[in-house]
Design the sequence.
């Protein structure tokens, strides 16, 4: 367990720029799309019998979906960092987009 924490800390401190840029490229568009979808659902259901409940359920479901999809590039990034010692940065983002679009 200690090795995992030390390796994680080393990855974040030594490769902060790469992790930050990958976060901007992956999470920012996903969370922006999430905000648009959930706000649209809240707008449609504001006069329903339970307006907050429907919007909150949609918020939770879409957040789980988007955060799960958003983890794929980071997993691939860590795998590439271990294999190639930081040669490829955007392989994780390409791999994730290829997987999501084809499946």
Sequence:
């Amino acid at each position: 367990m200690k090795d995992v924490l030390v390796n994680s800390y080393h990855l974040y401190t030594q490769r902060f720029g790469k992790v930050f840029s990958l976060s901007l490229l992956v999470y920012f568009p996903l969370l922006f799309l999430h905000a648009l979808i959930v706000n649209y659902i809240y707008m449609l259901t504001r006069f329903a019998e339970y307006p907050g409940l429907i919007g909150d359920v949609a918020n939770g479901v879409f957040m789980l979906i988007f955060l799960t999809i958003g983890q794929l590039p980071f997993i691939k990034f860590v795998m590439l960092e271990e294999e190639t010692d930081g040669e490829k940065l955007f392989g994780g983002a390409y791999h994730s987009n290829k997987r999501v679009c084809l499946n």
Q: What stands out?
A: The chain has a mean pLDDT of 82. The chain has one domain: 17-102. The chain is about 85% helix and 0% strand.
